[in-house]
Amino acid sequence: MTSPAREFSVLERICRPGQLEDSRVLIGPGDDLALVRAEGRGDVGGAEILVGVDQLIDGIHVDIATVGWSAAGRKAVTRSLSDIAAMAGRPVSIVVSAAVPPDVTEASAMELFDSMKETASQYHAPLVGGDLAILKEGPLTCSVTVMAVPPPQGAVTRFGAQPGDGLYVTGQLGGAWRGTHHLTFEPRLSEASMLRAILQDRLHAMLDISDGLGRDAAHLVERSGLQVVIEADALPCRDGADVSQAVGDGEDYELLLAAAGEVPEGLGACPVTRIGTIQERPDPDAPPVVLEWNGANHDISQSGWEHQ
Amino acid sequence: MTSPAREFSVLERICRPGQLEDSRVLIGPGDDLALVRAEGRGDVGGAEILVGVDQLIDGIHVDIATVGWSAAGRKAVTRSLSDIAAMAGRPVSIVVSAAVPPDVTEASAMELFDSMKETASQYHAPLVGGDLAILKEGPLTCSVTVMAVPPPQGAVTRFGAQPGDGLYVTGQLGGAWRGTHHLTFEPRLSEASMLRAILQDRLHAMLDISDGLGRDAAHLVERSGLQVVIEADALPCRDGADVSQAVGDGEDYELLLAAAGEVPEGLGACPVTRIGTIQERPDPDAPPVVLEWNGANHDISQSGWEHQ
Which residues of chain B does A126 touch, with a Cβ-Cβ cutoff of 8 Å? Predict the structure, then answer.
C-alpha cells in the first residue's frame, strides 16, 4: 500500500525537532520563517537572518486566466512578505523562481517578473535573483524566498502564547478569495513592527492568517497545552462576510497575535480587534481552538481552506 | 505577433543595471549569487549574505523515472551549492520548495525531502524551511535557495578577469550527463575557499560550469571587451570524453577561474589545470571565446547545453 503525498506529513518530517544540531539555526522550520545566524566578515559582528519560502501555483493559489500575470506576480510576493510581517521582521531581499507552461508568451513572462520585481521593490525587498524554466506541461509554479532581519526587540515566533493573553487580529476577516482582497492586500509589515515596538515583550506570539482563522489559531498552541477561545461576536467580518467565513475562508493575510496587557485598538488606518483569549486547556482531549457562538462552543481547530 | 518565453531575455530584464537603487545590494542579479547587506541587531555589526535560487525539473535537469527521488533531491541541492563555491562562499542555510505531480506517493515525497535535507546537512547548509504543493498535473518542480557568507577576502564575482590572466579549471570536463557525474559530483566548496585563501586578490573571476565550458567562459568576459582563448590540447577530458564534449556537454559543476601569477596544480585530490588565457579582444566583432584546436581557431561562445 502506498499513500498519496500529503503536504503536512512531509513537512512535519522536515520540521521534526532534534534533527537540527547546527548552532547557527536559532529558529528552525515550522514557524512562519526560520532564523539563522550569519557571520560578519573578518569575524566582526554578524547578523540574524529570517528566511523562508512559499509557492504560488496557477489553479491553486490564483487563477491566472481570470486575474492576469501581473496580479499573480504581486500575490506571489505579497504573501511571502506577509510571513516577514508575522515575525515582525524587516525585508532585506527576495529571490524568485518560476516554471511556466510552454505556451506562455515572452510578454506574459516579462509581466510576471516585472510585477514581482516592482512589488518587491515597493516593500523595500529588492529582487536580487531569479530563475526561469519553461515546462513541457503543467501550470505556472512560482517560488518566492524572502530574507529579512528581526526587529531590535527580536523576532516574534508563533509559539510563545501564555495563559491569560488576549487574542487580537488586525484588519478584517472573511471573503478574501471571493473578493479581490487576496490580490490587493498590503502585507502588515509596518503594523507588525509597530506592535513589536509598542508591546515589546508583552507581544508573546504572532502569525499571519493564510489558511483560515481556525487552523492558524491552532498553530499558536500546537507546542503547548493551551487553548484558544474565540468569541464569534467580536470577529471583525469583512464586507458582509459571516462568522463561518471569517473563521474558515483564509487568505486574509492579517496578523493574529497573543499579547498580555493593553493593546492599542488601532495602528494608523488599521484596526486591531480583541477576538478572544488564551487559556489552559480544560482537559487533554479538549480542542485547541474553540469558537463561542450563540451560547455554544464549536471546535474550529480544522476550519480553514485547503489550497487544493 | 507574440513570441514564446525565453529564459535569457526575461532574466536579462531582471538583471538590467540601473534598476537597483538599494544600497544594501552589493552584487545584483547576473552573477552566480547576489550579495546583500543585512543589519545586525541593535545597529551593531551586520553581515554580507550571498543568496541565489535555482530550479530542478523532472524531464529537464534529471529523469526521475531512471534515477529515483533521492538522486533528484541530492542534485537539486548540490547544483545550488555549486553556486556558493563559484563565489568562494561558505554555506549558511538553504530553503527548498517542491511541487509534485498528483500521483506521487508520500514515500517518494519523503525520499525527496529527506535527501535534500541530508545533502544540505552534509555540506553544513542546514535546511531551515520548506514548502510542498501537490500539482493537478505537470512534472516535479523543485526550487532551492541557498544562503552563504563570503570568505574573509570577499566574494569572487564572474566579471573581474584581466588581460594576461591564466584560465584554470578544477577536475575534469565532458560526458557528465551521459555518465553519473551530474548526480554524484561534490560541489567544489573547499577547493574554492582554498583558491581564495591561496591566491588572495590574484583570483580575479570565478564561476561554476553548468551550461558548458564555451558558454560559461563567455560569461567571464560579457561585461568587458576581453576574450577567452582556450587550448584544446590542455583540456582535462573526463573518462574518454573528447574535446567537443569537454567544451559543450555542461553539467560539470567544476570551477572555472581567471587568475594572475602562479596557481597550484592541485588542491588535495582535485587537479587544477591551466586551459587558456584572457586577452584583449583583437577587434570588437571577435568572438568572446575562442578554442585553438588543430591549428585553427573555433568560436565556442555558444557551445553548451540547453537544458530543454
Answer: 20, 22, 24-25, 36
Q: Are A276 and A228 in contact (CB under 8 A)?
A: yes
> B64 and B186 in one domain?
no
- Give the closest-approach CA distance of B221 to chain A in angstroms: 20
- Which of A40-54, A100-114, A247-261, B111-125 shows the lowest per-residue confidence on average (mean pLDDT)? A40-54
The phi and psi torsions of B79 (rounded to 5 degrees) equal -70, -30
**CB within 8 Å of chain B, chain A residues 188-247:** none
| Domain CATH code at residue B249 | 3.90.650.10
The number of folded domains in chain A is: 2
Q: Which residues of B touch A95 (CB under 8 A)?
A: 34, 51-53, 145
Please, what's the largest Cα pairwise distance for chain B? 63
Q: What is the DSSP letter of B200?
A: G
Residue A5 covered by a domain = no
The pLDDT tens digits of the residues spanning A177-224 come to 888 999 999 999 999 999 999 999 999 999 999 999 999 999 999 999
pTM: 0.94
Number of neighbouring beta carbons within 10 Å of residue A25: 18
Which residues on B lie below 8 Å from A41 (Cβ)?
47-48, 149-150, 152, 154
